[in-house]
Amino acid sequence: MSATAPPALDSTLPQLGRGFVWQDLAVGQRLRTFRRTVTETDLVNFIGVTGMLEAIFIEEGYAGGAITGRPVPAALTYSLIEGFLLQTMIQGTGLAMLELSQKIHGPVRVGDSIEAMVEVTGIRPTSQGGRAVVTSRIDVFNQRAEAVMTYVATRLLAGRT
Q1: Residue of 83, 100, 93, 102 lying closest to 38 (CA atoms)
Q2: What is the structure's pLDDT at 80?
Q3: pTM given for the model
Q4: Whole-angstrom Cα distance, residue 103 to residue 78?
Q5: Which domains, and CATH codes, for the chain?
Q6: Which of 41, 50, 71, 105 is a Cys-bridge partner for 67, taking CB atoms 3.0 to 4.6 Å apart?
Q7: 8 Å CB contact between 138 and 150
Q8: Which of the four pLDDT bands, split at 50, 70 and 90, describes residue 23?
Q9: Which of 21, 23, 20, 60 is nearest to 40 (CA)?
Q10: What is the model's pLDDT at position 161?
Q11: Contact, 140 vs 4, CB < 8 A?
Q12: Phi and psi (nearest 5°) for 25?
């Protein structure tokens, strides 16, 4: 049995997991993220690293809270959805977050499953290096298809070189 040397790495092959360049997107295009259940561990880790040590987040059944159940910070919901977008849509092509506006429609609680729908609402090529400013609306829903958050993100995305 003879051993065959492995082939040399071919850098011209398409890269798995790479995000969209702006030329692959179109105004009106809609995409959907995966769904993810928010866990107690997610909540504990997030409030620990951010210092969001509010009673409603750290004390189960906090009597002074306006939200029943185990609410999570809206910033955690946003971060989980942005993680999906980074891993699937803008990995290696997202250059900068330029602007963000956000509206919270309802609470997300530990045990809720969230997913988002992304709609590309604007693409404006820049004069520099094939880049473009891409605006998208992201609507976040829970497992009951209730809108819990909407945000508009304006990002700088790379183009084909």
Answers
A1: 83
A2: 98
A3: 0.90
A4: 11
A5: 22-157 (3.10.129.10)
A6: 71
A7: yes
A8: very high
A9: 60
A10: 74
A11: no
A12: -105, 155
